[in-house]
């Protein structure tokens, strides 16, 4: 499954490698990879593979899930479709509370003690999804884990999620996509070491010149 999802993401350029012309993240980090899993919604075959993958992942790893909560905004659609297939409730968590109406941050109906899986499109440093989990836990919800499409497997995210006792299971990951990209000619074999160096320490830009 990991390799099939990796091929899908590469084919539609939801994950796009450009090691010789790095992208610049909002944080200022230079990155050899661009990731926009929102694109998956525009391709029915890819979308179908992802939603079925998420459903199987949730059934296999979180069989007691009673509700799915999407991250705002990219996780919302995937949470909705997966919850529809599973026939369970869903909602989503805003990055901040609304400044009008009921001023909700958690949208949808979720009860204290309810067992919830957070659906995320991408895990990089783990910061935003950790905040979502924290918001739900503060509301008394039992977050049993995260189901995500793609993770970089960066040390910072692994440490952050581990410290917060948050389990994440992804459909595919950075190492798998790098391997598939090299095997299928999206990048050169010599680029693998550079890309893994970036994954290991995004702040160290020595991979650019290597």
Description:
The protein is of the alpha/beta class. Helix content is 39%, strand content 22%. Helix 4 links the parallel strand 8 and strand 9. Helix 1 packs across helix 6 and helix 2 packs across helix 3. The longest helix is centred in the N-terminal third of the chain and has 18 residues. It starts with a helix and ends in a 10-residue tail after the last helix. The relative contact order is 0.16.
Question: Biggest sheet: strands, sense, closure?
Answer: 6 strands, mixed
Major sheet strand order: 7-6-5-8-9-10
Structural class: alpha/beta
As a whole number of angstroms, the C-alpha radius of gyration is 17 Å
Q: Kindly state the number of beta strands.
A: 10
Low-confidence stretches: none
Compute the average pLDDT. 92
- How far is the N terminus from the C terminus? 32 Å
Fraction of helical residues: 25-40%
Please tally the helical runs, counting DSSP H or I stretches of 4 or more residues. 7
Features:
single chain; alpha/beta; 6-stranded mixed β-sheet; two-stranded antiparallel ribbon; 7 helices; 10 strands; globular
What would you say about this model in short?
This protein has 210 residues and is of the alpha/beta class. The chain has seven helices and ten strands.
List the helices and strands and how they pair.
Elements: H1 2-11, E1 15-17, E2 23-24, E3 30-31, E4 33-35, H2 44-61, E5 67-71, H3 74-86, E6 90-93, E7 106-107, E8 115-123, H4 127-138, E9 142-151, H5 155-163, E10 168-173, H6 174-183, H7 191-200
Parallel strand pairs: 5-6, 5-8, 8-9, 9-10
Antiparallel strand pairs: 1-4, 2-3, 6-7
Helix pairs in contact: 1-6, 2-3, 6-7
